[in-house]
Amino acid sequence: MLEYLEQQKKLTINQWKIFAAVTIGDMLDFFDFLLIAFVLAFIVKDWNLTYGQAAAILLSSGISAPLGSLFYGWLADKIGRRKVMIITILNFSIATGLMALTPERGWVFLVVCRFFVGFGVTGLYTVDIAVVQEFVPASKRGWITGVTTTMLPAGFVLGALLGQHVEAYIGWRGLFAIGLLPAGLSLLIRAWVPESPHWLIRVGRLAEARQSLAWALMLDPKEIQLPTAGPPVESSFGASCSNIRGASLPAVLPA
Length: 255
Known about the structure:
Blueprint: H1 3-6, H2 13-43, H3 51-79, H4 81-98, H5 107-134, H6 141-150, H7 152-165, H8 167-178, H9 185-192, H10 197-202, H11 206-217, H12 236-245
Helix pairs in contact: 2-3, 2-4, 2-5, 2-6, 2-7, 2-8, 2-9, 3-4, 3-5, 4-5, 4-9, 5-6, 7-8
């Protein structure tokens, strides 16, 4: 089935929708991740934070980041890309929003919340890059992934602008409350992004894969012929190794 995708010359509107959802997600992802850098400037003196305490707040997300990437990457191979994208967005946005409830001088509370922020942020980035690549032909994966990644600094700029111009009106707790907004992106993903056809084919859900592929290519599903046999069932370890090698599914499956 995937030969229909590989033969494509021009992206459809639906593929651009997926690209937009992933790009917006990455931008808000890093907005939440880096927001603490600006908030810390407002509380470090009032709370009389030591260098060690401030460092712990900043470092906690860095400690959890590789763990979140590994865990959510594994989970995406088990239950699907779309579900994990939604879970990771809720993970880091809720953790950021909870920091608005930080008790006075509650730096330990911030450390714990930041741990979960880092866990979710890298999880989303790991999964959404796979999603955008699995919905476009191999010939376009390089540049479209590059464009998606270039939007990461926009999240940092957004945090800086809010810290400079908005904090005076809503306070640093209000900035953390704004960090809840990315949770709304989960609704966008539910509306726009179907499950990856690559993943569906790998787990043998061929009819659903045809529906997903037809949606992306804006074709009638009847125009896409189902293969006569599904792919061999892979273990989660084998699937992960395949992803690490960067190997995609065969471009042409037997008709």
